[in-house]
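fold-stage: in
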Amino acid sequence: MARHTGESGMMGEEKHLDHGVGHELRAGQEKLGPRRLTIWADADSLPKDIRPFLIKRALDRREYEGITVCVQFVAARAPTDIPRACLVRVEPGDGAADRYIEAQAAPSDIVVTRDIPLAERLVKRSVYVVNDRGDIFTAENIAERRSIRDAMAALRATGLAPPSPKSSRRTAAETKRFADALERLIVRAIREKA
């Protein structure tokens, strides 16, 4: 079961959603109008230095050509820096946020994730996917990315490769690369939805 804490206008009010359906979330989205572009982010795995950029984007809700652009963070834990109005809480569990995002993301929505298998499934459904480094996953490059990811996982499992490095803070140039990639995807998605 997921809890959505936004769109009602009342801070702290939580809507309980059936994890597999999400009718109340979709109904809440309709309040903004049927023309909506959602940027989905898995807040449990999103690097902390990228969060402020997406939070600013979430609080500065914009409309392009009659389409409202919103940011939804999905998390099992409630990060204190993310406004409740932009947060969907899911039950703790391996991949719970990914499953929720996959169930809710509509074609031409945007998902921010490092999860290559999730990205592969979303790209097949015409959802735009970008990682926190600004790499945009497409139908043309996702199979290669998946092969590299699987090969590295196999090497790590046998001890032939070091563990996956934990992310360090990004440089200003790397943050700009992510922001630029996200803006390009927003423009593409708006053109498709318009």
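fold-stage: in (second)
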Amino acid sequence: MSDSSPTDPGILHNRYSGPPTLSQSNGFEIYPMPFFALIAASEPANLAGWYQKALGFSVLQVGPAFHLRRRKYQDLLLVPAQDERIPTLGGPLLYFDADGELEVLAERIEKAGKVGLVNVSGPLATLWNTSELRVTDPTGYRFVFTSRPRDPDPDIQSRVATILTSAHRLGKPV
């Protein structure tokens, strides 16, 4: 048992510094994944191809599952649907950072065509001063790719700065 508080700066640094890199493979860092989505598909190879073409994922590893990665900490595992693992049909919204590339991603999706897409919307401005591109894949999984807006709303920026400054003065984590 530790005497440290969850807000101890040493604990926060260790908790949020990310997992250690274990090796490299296909140009990607190999590390214990802090998060991933597992999608059971009747044809995982076809779905992996769709993710590559439409959303820019790359294949990190194949067999028996397809391990796909778009950016660091943006991992998907596509596994074959079997008797004990029925095909995935939808799931929670998965938010992925696409800062600096949201428009490029939207163009990529447009070029890939609407084949297999259930829904695409955006990029759209949000009330919390981001831009979002929402995509639903062929299995029903919903992805939101989010980015800072090109022209941030100065009123929202000012309110957020005030909140962060107040929290910092009070010594509270945000």
